[in-house]
User: Which sequence fits this backbone?
């Protein structure tokens, strides 16, 4: 199985092997592996047996893979306390919108690279068609009547005074670059089912039904969509995303569950654990970018 | 500077890992370099906010998910604050409470 921190593949598909790897990395004081142990195993140093037991528990599926994935996303982003970006999104100010536009433009560029990697690696037609539709709605649109999500993002930026040339010409923040590099690596090195799980887990974030799945709040307060203080472009971006992501993420996770080879199921879980960590850091980059609005 | 975590990492109390760094004249145990960076940023910030030359004691509670509520003292004065870090150890949020 894969390590959920560095994605290295263990020699055997066992929690014992993963536990050994984590403890080895701990012994050389690797910050990323230790942060992971602190979060998922506990802050008190434990022996290999205890680590293995906790890993078994973390990876155990009582309600199926899809439910497990949803739980990981909800606990990381929508637990107590809410992720700082979600807090700001409830009634987003221009800073928040700015951070969103500036970083998400780069994210969407990676998004379509990852989705096309899925298309190129699978021969399952329903998966290919799903990802083609996804790429069209996220990045291409059907001009002129149906703008893509990316186009709506750029228009949202323009509505708060940020020209699209600025969005294109500004490099993403280091945390965004790091997350995008990891997602790129996942799309190149991992199976298509893993890549699908890693990417479409992210779409759960904007799923309008996320509260029914245990989240402490929705992505944003839906009152924003009727609030005259927001531009039509902001409302259109948020409203369209809401509609799109509710369908996308659930269909995608159903496909992941359907095509996940039981022998590779733990790899998918590790990739999802990695992806929610990358999402956390990427959403923090949106917040951080927002702080420089108007400078 | 006295700190409340005696066994584990000076910032997060974890007993995993082993990373040593001198802060305020004492070699201290951290679980990893990220916690050491965060801890040094915390100390520098508290000293700057209060114009203190050093800190006598520091008590940290919470974790980086919730953010940390802390109490620092110097020369009989007490300063309570909230701090949360980015995942690379830079300060994300800092305010007195
Ligand atoms: Zn690893
Ligand atoms: Zn630590």
Assistant:
């Amino acid at each position: 199985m894969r390590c959920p921190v560095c994605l290295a593949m263990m020699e055997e598909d066992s929690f014992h092997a993963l536990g050994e790897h984590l403890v080895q990395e701990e012994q050389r004081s690797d910050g990323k592996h230790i942060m992971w142990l602190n979060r998922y195993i506990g802050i008190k140093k434990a022996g290999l047996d205890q680590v293995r037991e906790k890993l078994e528990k973390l990876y155990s599926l009582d309600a199926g893979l899809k439910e497990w994935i949803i739980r990981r996303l909800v606990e990381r982003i929508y637990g107590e306390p809410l992720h700082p970006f979600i807090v700001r999104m409830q009634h987003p100010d221009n800073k928040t919108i700015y951070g969103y536009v500036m970083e998400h433009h780069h994210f969407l560029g990676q998004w379509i690279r990852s989705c096309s990697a899925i298309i190129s690696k699978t021969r399952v037609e329903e998966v290919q068609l799903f990802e083609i539709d996804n790429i069209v709605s996220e990045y291409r649109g059907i001009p002129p009547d149906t703008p893509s999500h990316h186009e709506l993002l750029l228009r949202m930026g323009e509505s708060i005074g940020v020209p699209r040339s600025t969005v294109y010409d500004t490099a993403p923040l280091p945390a965004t670059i790091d997350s995008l590099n990891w997602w790129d690596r996942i799309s190149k090195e991992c199976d298509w089912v893993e890549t699908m799980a890693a990417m479409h887990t992210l779409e759960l974030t904007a799923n309008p039904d996320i509260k029914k799945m245990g989240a402490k709040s929705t992505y944003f307060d839906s009152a924003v969509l009727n609030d005259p203080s927001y531009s039509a472009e902001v409302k259109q971006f948020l409203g369209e995303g809401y509609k799109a992501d509710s369908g996308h993420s659930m269909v995608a996770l159903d496909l992941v569950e359907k095509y996940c080879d039981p022998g590779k199921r733990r790899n998918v879980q590790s990739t999802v654990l990695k992806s929610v960590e990358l999402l956390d850091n990427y959403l923090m980059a949106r917040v951080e970018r927002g702080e420089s609005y108007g400078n | 500077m006295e700190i409340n975590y005696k066994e584990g990492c000076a910032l997060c109390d974890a007993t995993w890992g082993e990373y040593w760094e001198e802060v305020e004249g004492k070699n201290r145990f951290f679980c990893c370099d990220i916690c050491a960076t965060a801890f040094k940023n915390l100390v520098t910030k508290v000293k700057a906010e209060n114009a203190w030359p050093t800190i006598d004691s520091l008590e940290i509670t919470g974790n980086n998910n919730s953010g940390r509520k802390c109490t620092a003292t110097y020369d009989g004065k007490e300063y309570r604050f909230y701090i949360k870090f980015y995942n690379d150890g830079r300060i994300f949020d800092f305010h007195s409470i």
